[in-house]
Amino acid sequence: MIDFWLIAAAMVLLAVVVVVWPLWRRRSNERVDRTALNVALYEERVAELQAQQRAGELTEAQVQSAQQEASRLLLEDTAAADAKRAPLTRGIKGVLLLAAVVMPLAVVGLYQAWGNPDGLALYREMQDTPQVSSVEALIDRTERVVEVQPTNGEAWYMLGRAYMSAQRPADAVQAFGNSLNQLGEAPDVLAQLAQARYFANGNQLDPEAVAALDKTLELQPNNPTALGLLGIAAFEGGDYSGAIGYWQRLLQATEPGSQGVEAIQGGIDRARERLAAAGGTPPAAVDEGPSISLRVSVAPELMAQLDPNASVFVFAREPNGPPMPLIAKRLTLSQLPLDIILTQADAMLPGVTLSAEQTLEVVARVSPTGDARQGTHLGRLDDVHAGSGEQLELVINQAAD
């Protein structure tokens, strides 16, 4: 901040100089011009007296008397002019001095009232140290961000995630709620809000959390946070069959080979053991049916233009049917190129099945906002049939309509 105030002080000083300098020059010029005029008149009067003396019109005594009178008038006129100018000069100097003192104070006061010094200080801090060393430091910085920008929904979401990392679910509930108010019904925010409410309520789903989860799965049926939380809640409540069902859906939506697969499968195995010990029957595995094998990639000329953290939605739909996709997977642009398999386990709605007779349109859409309905770029394949066994190349190579 010190450089900002130094620059502001320099600008104020320059403004004062710009005002004072012309006035000072004007007063100096006026004084010089008046004095020069008086001296010129005095010299002219002396020359005239000397000429009259040489012509014999005046005696030497008369000339000396006249010169003394001219000198006296010169001194009196100069003193009178200075006396008239002095109060005005002192008044102007006083006004300018007062302005030079008041102007910086007024600038500082107005900036404090109308400016954003906290935001500027925070911006400088983030420029100097973009990475923080601890969760507590991240929370402190993000709290200051939302204080300066209370309508920043993404910042509220980040603050909620930080609170969850610090085991502060009650604070996270408030942060996710504020994020939801700014961003609208975003699936990820709804799921995180439900999770925060679950932990803040002693590992119990209250009605608000259930409503948030229902809305999440309505907007994004394979949301991993929602499916994982519902599985945990069902397991903790003794509904092992329900837990297995949620975790199987989560497993099918998780990229093979990722870190979460082993943990999810471990949860399913534990739920099956508990269910078997209680004499229950595990739910049947989901029949995945015919599949579509894809290699999803981005055209090289587009990759540099896109955010690597943007979401990529890969989905299949009937060309002449409703716009709602039949099956879909969510990826991240940084994962591409990637080999994936779409099956009816990726269905958006219950009861969806695929058959080899269906003609499908397969689309990959890039969405920086995470909204599957909107995107910036896409790739498309027509006349796709499930179960062909052929791996298709799906390249994102055009701007979205």
TrEMBL record:
Name this protein carries in UniProt: C-type cytochrome biogenesis protein CcmI
Cytochrome c-type biogenesis protein H TPR domain span: 148-258
Pfam families, sorted: Ig_CycH, TPR_CcmH_CycH
Keyword Flavoprotein: no
SMART domains referenced in this protein's UniProt entry, alphabetically: TPR (SM00028)
Transmembrane segments: 6-24, 94-114
Predominant location category: other
Coiled-coil stretches: 32-69
Cell location: Cell envelope
Keyword annotations: Coiled coil, Cytochrome c-type biogenesis, Membrane, Repeat, TPR repeat, Transmembrane, Transmembrane helix
Occurrences of domain Cytochrome c-type biogenesis protein H Ig-like (ranges): 292-397
Highest rank taxon of the organism: Bacteria
